[in-house]
Amino acid sequence: MTIRNYTNTLNSHLYLSPAHLHEISSDFLRHFTGKMSTIGVTPGDGEAKTVSLRAAIRAQQSNSKDVSAALPSTIDSAVDVLKIKEWEVGRFQDEIAANQGIRIRRRPPTGPPSHYVGPFQFRIQSEGNTPRNILEEIIWNKDVEVSQLKERMPLYALTKAMANAPPARDFVGALRASQLRTGLPALIAEVKKASPSRGVLREDFDPVEIAEAYEKGGAACLSVLTDAKYFQGSFENLEIIRNAGVKCPLLCKEFIIDAWQIYYARTKGADAVLLIAAVLPDHDIGYMTKICKILGLTALVEVHNEREMDRVLRIEGVELIGINNRDLETFEVNISNTKKLLEGEHGQVIRQKDIIVVGESGMFSPDDIAYVQEAGVKAVLVGESIVKQSDPRTGITQLFGKDISS
Protein backbone atom coordinates (compact mmCIF):
# COMPACT_ATOMS: atom_id res chain seq x y z
CA MET A 1 0.00 0.00 0.00
CA THR A 2 1.36 3.40 -1.01
CA ILE A 3 0.37 6.84 0.27
CA ARG A 4 -1.17 7.63 -3.10
CA ASN A 5 -3.23 4.42 -3.13
CA TYR A 6 -4.44 5.01 0.42
CA THR A 7 -5.51 8.55 -0.50
CA ASN A 8 -7.57 7.15 -3.36
CA THR A 9 -9.52 4.87 -0.99
CA LEU A 10 -11.27 8.00 0.40
CA ASN A 11 -10.83 6.77 3.99
CA SER A 12 -11.43 9.43 6.63
CA HIS A 13 -9.07 7.73 9.13
CA LEU A 14 -5.55 6.31 8.99
CA TYR A 15 -5.39 2.84 10.55
CA LEU A 16 -2.02 1.53 11.79
CA SER A 17 -1.01 -1.54 13.77
CA PRO A 18 1.12 -0.66 16.84
CA ALA A 19 3.07 -3.88 16.37
CA HIS A 20 4.47 -2.66 13.04
CA LEU A 21 5.73 0.88 13.56
CA HIS A 22 8.46 0.66 10.94
CA GLU A 23 9.61 3.13 8.30
CA ILE A 24 6.51 2.68 6.08
CA SER A 25 4.29 3.60 9.02
CA SER A 26 6.47 6.65 9.68
CA ASP A 27 6.00 7.87 6.12
CA PHE A 28 2.22 7.54 6.47
CA LEU A 29 2.25 9.39 9.80
CA ARG A 30 4.23 12.29 8.36
CA HIS A 31 1.96 12.61 5.34
CA PHE A 32 -1.46 12.32 7.00
CA THR A 33 -0.87 14.12 10.31
CA GLY A 34 -3.30 17.05 10.44
CA LYS A 35 -5.23 15.69 7.46
CA MET A 36 -7.09 12.78 9.05
CA SER A 37 -7.47 11.03 12.42
CA THR A 38 -4.91 8.33 13.15
CA ILE A 39 -6.20 5.19 14.84
CA GLY A 40 -4.43 2.12 16.21
CA VAL A 41 -5.79 -1.32 15.36
CA THR A 42 -5.27 -4.10 17.89
CA PRO A 43 -6.69 -7.64 18.11
CA GLY A 44 -9.03 -8.52 20.95
CA ASP A 45 -11.33 -11.51 21.52
CA GLY A 46 -11.02 -12.63 17.91
CA GLU A 47 -11.84 -9.27 16.35
CA ALA A 48 -9.95 -6.12 15.46
CA LYS A 49 -10.62 -3.14 17.73
CA THR A 50 -9.76 0.49 17.05
CA VAL A 51 -8.44 2.86 19.68
CA SER A 52 -6.00 5.75 19.84
CA LEU A 53 -2.65 4.86 18.34
CA ARG A 54 -0.84 5.92 21.50
CA ALA A 55 -3.06 3.72 23.64
CA ALA A 56 -2.57 0.79 21.30
CA ILE A 57 1.19 1.16 21.50
CA ARG A 58 1.09 1.31 25.29
CA ALA A 59 -0.89 -1.94 25.41
CA GLN A 60 1.35 -3.57 22.81
CA GLN A 61 4.57 -2.73 24.65
CA SER A 62 3.18 -3.78 28.02
CA ASN A 63 2.71 -7.31 26.58
CA SER A 64 -0.82 -7.48 27.99
CA LYS A 65 -2.56 -10.78 27.20
CA ASP A 66 -5.90 -9.00 26.97
CA VAL A 67 -4.77 -6.04 24.93
CA SER A 68 -8.19 -4.51 24.34
CA ALA A 69 -8.98 -4.51 28.07
CA ALA A 70 -5.94 -2.33 28.75
CA LEU A 71 -6.97 0.37 26.32
CA PRO A 72 -8.94 3.55 27.03
CA SER A 73 -11.75 4.50 24.69
CA THR A 74 -10.63 8.06 23.99
CA ILE A 75 -8.88 8.99 20.77
CA ASP A 76 -5.82 11.24 20.82
CA SER A 77 -5.45 14.06 18.32
CA ALA A 78 -3.37 13.40 15.24
CA VAL A 79 -1.00 16.18 16.27
CA ASP A 80 0.39 13.94 19.02
CA VAL A 81 1.16 11.04 16.74
CA LEU A 82 4.59 12.12 15.52
CA LYS A 83 5.76 12.44 19.13
CA ILE A 84 5.14 8.76 19.85
CA LYS A 85 8.53 7.40 18.90
CA GLU A 86 10.63 9.88 20.84
CA TRP A 87 8.32 10.06 23.87
CA GLU A 88 6.44 6.80 24.23
CA VAL A 89 9.32 4.46 23.38
CA GLY A 90 11.61 6.09 25.93
CA ARG A 91 8.91 5.98 28.57
CA PHE A 92 8.32 2.30 27.98
CA GLN A 93 12.05 1.64 28.14
CA ASP A 94 11.98 3.13 31.65
CA GLU A 95 8.96 1.07 32.67
CA ILE A 96 10.41 -2.19 31.35
CA ALA A 97 13.76 -1.57 33.04
CA ALA A 98 12.09 -0.77 36.36
CA ASN A 99 9.95 -3.90 36.23
CA GLN A 100 12.97 -6.09 35.50
CA GLY A 101 15.10 -4.49 38.21
CA ILE A 102 17.70 -3.26 35.74
CA ARG A 103 19.00 0.28 35.39
CA ILE A 104 20.27 0.20 31.83
CA ARG A 105 17.54 0.50 29.22
CA ARG A 106 17.76 -1.37 25.93
CA ARG A 107 18.04 0.56 22.71
CA PRO A 108 14.66 1.70 21.32
CA PRO A 109 13.94 -0.26 18.13
CA THR A 110 13.30 2.84 16.05
CA GLY A 111 16.12 5.13 17.16
CA PRO A 112 15.74 8.89 16.71
CA PRO A 113 12.86 9.51 14.29
CA SER A 114 13.49 11.16 10.94
CA HIS A 115 11.93 14.53 10.10
CA TYR A 116 11.93 16.37 6.81
CA VAL A 117 12.05 20.02 5.80
CA GLY A 118 11.93 20.15 2.02
CA PRO A 119 14.73 17.92 0.73
CA PHE A 120 16.55 17.84 4.07
CA GLN A 121 16.33 15.02 6.59
CA PHE A 122 17.19 15.42 10.26
CA ARG A 123 16.74 13.50 13.50
CA ILE A 124 15.65 14.94 16.85
CA GLN A 125 17.31 13.51 19.93
CA SER A 126 15.20 13.25 23.07
CA GLU A 127 15.33 11.51 26.44
CA GLY A 128 13.60 8.48 24.97
CA ASN A 129 16.12 7.84 22.21
CA THR A 130 19.33 9.13 23.84
CA PRO A 131 21.50 7.08 26.25
CA ARG A 132 21.49 8.51 29.78
CA ASN A 133 25.01 7.42 30.76
CA ILE A 134 28.13 5.82 29.30
CA LEU A 135 27.13 2.24 30.14
CA GLU A 136 23.75 2.71 28.46
CA GLU A 137 25.50 4.15 25.40
CA ILE A 138 27.83 1.14 25.31
CA ILE A 139 24.91 -1.29 25.57
CA TRP A 140 22.91 0.43 22.83
CA ASN A 141 25.89 0.29 20.49
CA LYS A 142 26.56 -3.31 21.49
CA ASP A 143 23.00 -4.20 20.53
CA VAL A 144 23.64 -3.04 16.96
CA GLU A 145 27.07 -4.68 16.86
CA VAL A 146 25.82 -8.07 18.04
CA SER A 147 22.91 -8.04 15.60
CA GLN A 148 25.34 -7.53 12.73
CA LEU A 149 27.73 -10.23 13.98
CA LYS A 150 24.91 -12.75 14.37
CA GLU A 151 23.97 -12.27 10.72
CA ARG A 152 27.53 -13.07 9.63
CA MET A 153 28.10 -15.86 12.16
CA PRO A 154 24.86 -17.63 13.13
CA LEU A 155 24.79 -19.84 16.21
CA TYR A 156 25.10 -23.11 14.29
CA ALA A 157 28.42 -21.87 12.86
CA LEU A 158 29.68 -21.05 16.37
CA THR A 159 28.76 -24.49 17.71
CA LYS A 160 30.87 -26.03 14.95
CA ALA A 161 33.76 -23.67 15.72
CA MET A 162 33.66 -24.63 19.41
CA ALA A 163 34.82 -28.11 18.46
CA ASN A 164 38.23 -26.60 17.67
CA ALA A 165 38.39 -24.38 20.77
CA PRO A 166 40.83 -25.31 23.55
CA PRO A 167 39.24 -26.89 26.64
CA ALA A 168 37.86 -24.53 29.27
CA ARG A 169 39.92 -24.17 32.44
CA ASP A 170 38.75 -23.92 36.04
CA PHE A 171 38.47 -20.18 36.70
CA VAL A 172 37.01 -20.51 40.21
CA GLY A 173 39.52 -23.22 41.12
CA ALA A 174 42.40 -20.95 40.14
CA LEU A 175 41.08 -18.16 42.38
CA ARG A 176 40.66 -20.47 45.36
CA ALA A 177 44.13 -21.96 44.91
CA SER A 178 45.79 -18.53 44.75
CA GLN A 179 43.94 -17.22 47.80
CA LEU A 180 44.92 -20.33 49.76
CA ARG A 181 48.56 -20.05 48.64
CA THR A 182 49.10 -16.35 49.40
CA GLY A 183 46.57 -15.64 52.14
CA LEU A 184 45.56 -12.60 50.09
CA PRO A 185 42.72 -11.98 47.63
CA ALA A 186 43.44 -13.71 44.33
CA LEU A 187 44.32 -11.32 41.51
CA ILE A 188 42.38 -11.12 38.25
CA ALA A 189 44.70 -8.85 36.27
CA GLU A 190 43.11 -6.90 33.44
CA VAL A 191 44.56 -6.62 29.95
CA LYS A 192 43.14 -3.23 29.04
CA LYS A 193 44.44 -0.58 26.66
CA ALA A 194 41.89 2.19 27.30
CA SER A 195 38.66 3.13 29.04
CA PRO A 196 35.96 5.78 28.44
CA SER A 197 36.79 7.52 31.72
CA ARG A 198 40.61 7.44 31.55
CA GLY A 199 41.40 7.33 27.85
CA VAL A 200 44.44 5.38 26.68
CA LEU A 201 46.17 3.72 29.64
CA ARG A 202 49.12 2.24 27.79
CA GLU A 203 50.45 3.35 24.40
CA ASP A 204 52.91 0.47 23.95
CA PHE A 205 50.16 -2.11 24.24
CA ASP A 206 51.21 -5.70 23.53
CA PRO A 207 48.46 -7.98 24.93
CA VAL A 208 50.57 -11.13 25.02
CA GLU A 209 53.54 -9.40 26.64
CA ILE A 210 51.28 -7.87 29.29
CA ALA A 211 49.49 -11.16 29.93
CA GLU A 212 52.77 -13.02 30.38
CA ALA A 213 54.03 -10.33 32.77
CA TYR A 214 50.84 -10.62 34.82
CA GLU A 215 51.22 -14.38 35.03
CA LYS A 216 54.84 -14.12 36.14
CA GLY A 217 53.81 -11.49 38.69
CA GLY A 218 51.41 -13.87 40.44
CA ALA A 219 48.02 -13.25 38.82
CA ALA A 220 45.61 -16.15 39.30
CA CYS A 221 43.44 -15.25 36.30
CA LEU A 222 43.34 -12.62 33.57
CA SER A 223 40.55 -10.37 32.33
CA VAL A 224 40.73 -9.39 28.66
CA LEU A 225 38.72 -6.41 27.35
CA THR A 226 37.10 -7.31 24.05
CA ASP A 227 35.05 -4.17 23.33
CA ALA A 228 36.63 -2.26 20.46
CA LYS A 229 34.73 1.03 20.34
CA TYR A 230 35.09 2.17 23.95
CA PHE A 231 38.04 0.16 25.32
CA GLN A 232 40.15 -0.46 22.20
CA GLY A 233 39.99 -4.17 22.92
CA SER A 234 39.22 -7.13 20.67
CA PHE A 235 38.36 -10.81 20.63
CA GLU A 236 41.58 -11.26 18.70
CA ASN A 237 43.48 -10.17 21.83
CA LEU A 238 41.67 -12.86 23.80
CA GLU A 239 42.47 -15.47 21.17
CA ILE A 240 46.15 -14.65 20.78
CA ILE A 241 46.70 -14.62 24.55
CA ARG A 242 45.13 -18.07 24.79
CA ASN A 243 47.14 -19.38 21.84
CA ALA A 244 50.37 -17.92 23.26
CA GLY A 245 50.30 -20.52 26.02
CA VAL A 246 49.37 -18.31 28.97
CA LYS A 247 48.22 -20.72 31.68
CA CYS A 248 46.02 -18.32 33.67
CA PRO A 249 42.30 -18.84 32.99
CA LEU A 250 40.84 -15.99 30.92
CA LEU A 251 37.77 -13.85 31.62
CA CYS A 252 36.16 -12.39 28.51
CA LYS A 253 35.39 -8.83 29.64
CA GLU A 254 32.56 -8.12 27.23
CA PHE A 255 29.21 -6.35 27.58
CA ILE A 256 26.99 -9.38 27.14
CA ILE A 257 23.38 -8.80 26.12
CA ASP A 258 22.79 -11.97 24.10
CA ALA A 259 23.61 -15.64 24.75
CA TRP A 260 25.22 -15.72 21.30
CA GLN A 261 28.14 -13.72 22.75
CA ILE A 262 28.88 -16.48 25.27
CA TYR A 263 29.28 -19.04 22.49
CA TYR A 264 31.44 -16.60 20.55
CA ALA A 265 33.67 -15.98 23.58
CA ARG A 266 34.08 -19.74 23.97
CA THR A 267 35.32 -20.09 20.39
CA LYS A 268 37.99 -17.48 21.16
CA GLY A 269 39.34 -19.37 24.18
CA ALA A 270 37.47 -17.77 27.09
CA ASP A 271 37.21 -19.65 30.39
CA ALA A 272 34.78 -17.17 31.99
CA VAL A 273 32.44 -14.35 30.96
CA LEU A 274 31.05 -11.23 32.63
CA LEU A 275 27.30 -10.80 33.21
CA ILE A 276 26.23 -7.33 34.43
CA ALA A 277 23.14 -7.23 36.67
CA ALA A 278 22.48 -3.57 35.80
CA VAL A 279 22.02 -4.67 32.19
CA LEU A 280 20.46 -8.14 32.38
CA PRO A 281 17.13 -9.09 34.00
CA ASP A 282 17.06 -12.05 36.38
CA HIS A 283 15.79 -14.60 33.87
CA ASP A 284 18.61 -13.70 31.45
CA ILE A 285 21.25 -14.07 34.16
CA GLY A 286 19.83 -17.45 35.18
CA TYR A 287 19.58 -18.64 31.59
CA MET A 288 23.07 -17.44 30.67
CA THR A 289 24.56 -18.95 33.83
CA LYS A 290 23.15 -22.32 32.77
CA ILE A 291 24.62 -21.92 29.29
CA CYS A 292 28.00 -21.17 30.86
CA LYS A 293 27.85 -24.38 32.89
CA ILE A 294 26.96 -26.40 29.80
CA LEU A 295 29.95 -24.93 27.95
CA GLY A 296 32.28 -25.36 30.93
CA LEU A 297 32.60 -21.63 31.53
CA THR A 298 32.36 -19.59 34.73
CA ALA A 299 29.98 -16.63 34.98
CA LEU A 300 31.19 -13.60 36.94
CA VAL A 301 27.98 -11.74 37.82
CA GLU A 302 28.62 -8.06 38.51
CA VAL A 303 26.55 -5.93 40.91
CA HIS A 304 26.74 -2.25 41.86
CA ASN A 305 24.20 -1.80 44.65
CA GLU A 306 22.07 -3.57 47.25
CA ARG A 307 19.10 -4.14 44.97
CA GLU A 308 21.28 -5.88 42.40
CA MET A 309 22.91 -7.96 45.13
CA ASP A 310 19.45 -9.03 46.38
CA ARG A 311 18.48 -10.08 42.87
CA VAL A 312 21.65 -12.04 42.14
CA LEU A 313 21.64 -13.91 45.45
CA ARG A 314 18.21 -15.28 44.57
CA ILE A 315 19.44 -16.76 41.27
CA GLU A 316 20.42 -20.42 41.37
CA GLY A 317 23.87 -21.42 40.17
CA VAL A 318 25.76 -18.18 40.83
CA GLU A 319 29.19 -18.95 42.30
CA LEU A 320 31.14 -15.78 41.53
CA ILE A 321 29.91 -12.23 42.26
CA GLY A 322 31.81 -9.08 41.40
CA ILE A 323 31.14 -5.86 43.32
CA ASN A 324 31.89 -2.87 41.13
CA ASN A 325 32.73 0.21 43.18
CA ARG A 326 32.20 2.57 40.25
CA ASP A 327 28.96 4.57 40.20
CA LEU A 328 27.20 4.05 36.87
CA GLU A 329 25.87 7.60 36.76
CA THR A 330 28.90 9.63 37.82
CA PHE A 331 31.74 7.12 37.24
CA GLU A 332 33.09 8.04 40.67
CA VAL A 333 34.73 5.21 42.62
CA ASN A 334 34.28 4.42 46.32
CA ILE A 335 35.61 1.11 47.65
CA SER A 336 33.41 1.40 50.75
CA ASN A 337 30.66 0.15 48.44
CA THR A 338 32.19 -3.32 48.75
CA LYS A 339 31.97 -3.29 52.53
CA LYS A 340 28.40 -1.96 52.47
CA LEU A 341 27.20 -4.74 50.16
CA LEU A 342 28.85 -7.49 52.22
CA GLU A 343 27.45 -6.46 55.59
CA GLY A 344 24.52 -8.15 57.30
CA GLU A 345 22.30 -10.64 55.53
CA HIS A 346 24.11 -10.42 52.20
CA GLY A 347 27.36 -11.56 53.77
CA GLN A 348 25.62 -14.43 55.57
CA VAL A 349 24.00 -15.72 52.38
CA ILE A 350 27.29 -15.45 50.49
CA ARG A 351 29.11 -17.48 53.13
CA GLN A 352 26.33 -20.08 53.26
CA LYS A 353 26.44 -20.52 49.49
CA ASP A 354 30.27 -20.44 49.43
CA ILE A 355 30.22 -17.72 46.78
CA ILE A 356 33.50 -16.02 45.91
CA VAL A 357 33.24 -12.23 45.93
CA VAL A 358 35.47 -10.22 43.61
CA GLY A 359 36.23 -6.58 44.39
CA GLU A 360 36.27 -4.39 41.26
CA SER A 361 37.50 -0.81 40.71
CA GLY A 362 39.31 1.57 43.03
CA MET A 363 42.16 -0.59 44.32
CA PHE A 364 45.56 1.05 44.06
CA SER A 365 47.47 0.19 47.26
CA PRO A 366 48.05 -2.50 49.90
CA ASP A 367 45.68 -0.59 52.19
CA ASP A 368 42.92 -0.89 49.59
CA ILE A 369 43.54 -4.62 49.28
CA ALA A 370 43.47 -5.04 53.07
CA TYR A 371 40.23 -3.05 53.31
CA VAL A 372 38.29 -5.18 50.83
CA GLN A 373 39.78 -8.40 52.21
CA GLU A 374 38.56 -7.51 55.69
CA ALA A 375 35.12 -6.87 54.17
CA GLY A 376 35.02 -10.45 52.87
CA VAL A 377 36.46 -10.28 49.36
CA LYS A 378 38.34 -13.38 48.13
CA ALA A 379 39.57 -11.92 44.83
CA VAL A 380 40.16 -8.55 43.19
CA LEU A 381 39.93 -7.46 39.57
CA VAL A 382 42.50 -4.76 38.87
CA GLY A 383 43.54 -3.12 35.62
CA GLU A 384 44.49 0.54 35.64
CA SER A 385 46.91 0.57 38.58
CA ILE A 386 49.06 -2.21 37.12
CA VAL A 387 48.70 -1.96 33.33
CA LYS A 388 50.06 1.61 33.41
CA GLN A 389 53.33 0.43 35.00
CA SER A 390 56.27 -0.03 32.64
CA ASP A 391 56.72 -3.45 34.25
CA PRO A 392 53.33 -4.87 35.29
CA ARG A 393 55.05 -7.32 37.64
CA THR A 394 56.35 -4.39 39.66
CA GLY A 395 52.85 -2.93 39.66
CA ILE A 396 51.45 -6.14 41.17
CA THR A 397 54.09 -6.17 43.91
CA GLN A 398 53.35 -2.53 44.75
CA LEU A 399 49.60 -3.20 44.80
CA PHE A 400 49.86 -6.04 47.32
CA GLY A 401 52.88 -4.72 49.22
CA LYS A 402 54.74 -7.98 48.61
CA ASP A 403 55.75 -10.42 45.90
CA ILE A 404 52.83 -12.81 45.36
CA SER A 405 54.43 -14.77 42.51
CA SER A 406 55.74 -17.59 44.69
Mind explaining what this structure looks like?
The structure is a single chain. This protein is of the alpha/beta class and 406 residues long. The chain has helices spanning 3-8, 23-32, 53-61, 84-100, 134-152, 155-161, 171-182, 207-216, 228-231, 235-243, 259-267, 282-295, 306-313, 336-342, 345-353, 366-375, 384-387, 392-400; strands at residues 13-16, 37-44, 47-52, 114-117, 120-123, 186-191, 194-195, 199-200, 221-225, 250-253, 272-276, 298-303, 320-324, 356-360, 379-382. The protein is globular, with a radius of gyration of 25 Å. InterPro entries: Aldolase_TIM (IPR013785), Indole-3-glycerol_P_synth (IPR045186), Indole-3-glycerol_P_synth_dom (IPR013798), Indole-3-GlycerolPSynthase_CS (IPR001468), RibuloseP-bd_barrel (IPR011060).
